[in-house]
Amino acid sequence: MRMALAENPTGFAERVALTAILPLRDGDPSPPSPFVPTEAQPPADILRCAETLGIPWRRLLLAEIDTEQRLRRYVDRVDECPLASALTILSSSFLRSWRVRDRIESLACQARGGSVRGAVRQLRMAFRRLLGTGERDQAAFAQHLWFAYQRVLLLQRVSRAAARSHGTMAERLALTCARTGCAYDDAAWALCRHDASPRRGHRLEAAVQKVREEGFWIPRAESEARAFDQLRRVIRSSPHLGPGRSSRRRCESPIDAPRRVALPVDAV
After folding, report:
1. Same domain membership, residue 235 and residue 208
2. Which of 170, 160, 236, 216 minimizes the C-alpha distance to 193?
3. Are 210 and 155 in contact (CB under 8 A)?
4. Is residue 110 within 8 Å of residue 104, measured between CB atoms?
5. Most exposed residue of 55, 61, 107, 254, measured as fewest CB within 10 angstroms of its CB?
6. Are 109 and 141 found together in one domain?
7. How far apart are the C-alpha atoms of 194 and 162, rounded to whole Å?
8. Are residues 112 and 183 in the same domain?
């Protein structure tokens, strides 16, 4: 059978399927290996391979461009930028920069291979930035997630109100703003999105994507619905956003706490 295949070659897919079925013997040719692009390959071949593997190369490249522009905005020589400066400039998004990732990989190699103290110290600094440098930073990031969550809920309400609106564009804009109390830009976004794609199942996905584009951090998942669910779980489990926590802190504040005013004694 293998002789017949050699004499009468078939398509590439058929050869791969038959090679996978037949057992390998001594002297048999190795099965074809998958295409692994290199830097010497044309960009079109590399991007085609990335799309085949399901790699979101558009999102990754846009994130790389954004972080690189932010570094160049504050640092003259980005090639010589210290890791601590890059972590401060990029904040919690420093893993989106290829410069920072290469630096962390080099430090990890030094720490695991030679236990270099300086490398271990810088790695700990990087991971402390991911977790937050203190309770104040964690509380601020929790508030950031809370605002992102509320923003998604608002955009969903705006989308539902826009779908129920009727009349001219001006009347629909006024009605959507009146029902939800949203800004004019949010109402215009919801109406344009509804006219282009009126399907209800895409409201949450569109809202999450818009909130991400506005600069809010939302976890990544296989779908935007799961990402929003993860965001909700993080908010509910955060000790900085517990029910009644903010009200207790306001009451314990020496400025806002109610006090009895000392009145002068009236003379009889």
Report:
1. yes
2. 160
3. yes
4. no
5. 254
6. no
7. 7
8. no
